[in-house]
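Data follows
____________
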Amino acid sequence: MRGWRAKADSQTQPDVIGTDLGANTIIARNEIPWRLMTPIKFVLRYTAIPFTAIVAVVIWAAVPSSKEVDARQYAALSRAYTSFPVAFRREISDAMDHGRISDWRYQTLVRDSLANGVALDWPTSGVDELALERQKLGALIHADPDLPKP
């Protein structure tokens, strides 16, 4: 048996009387158990997944940028090396500091070469293997009289 009870705030809610707890029983709003969310549950529910997604995208974007450039890119730098200004040759030398140029550093070098008025042209033929092209550029940097020797 169900009854209705008026509250002081003029809201009426069902009041369960007796043992009428069948499928059609209405439970009062104030009888639903509310649990407070702990800070750990909040972090796990609302911030962990978006944070993980952001970290995954950053890793996905950074990994391809850290790979080494290919032989054509080394060949483009070595063939145009003598036409570069001294400041830009110094940037190439700094980029080759660890014996190789990463894709990320190469993109910066291309932007700087355009700013210096030199366009890099990738050769379509006459390109050796990666190690040989890297060695050619390293030899040009080492033989450059305008750069300080280590």
In short: Confidence is low (pLDDT under 50) at residues 1-10. Helices lie at 39-65, 71-80, 86-95, 103-115, 130-143. The chain is about 50% helix and 5% strand.
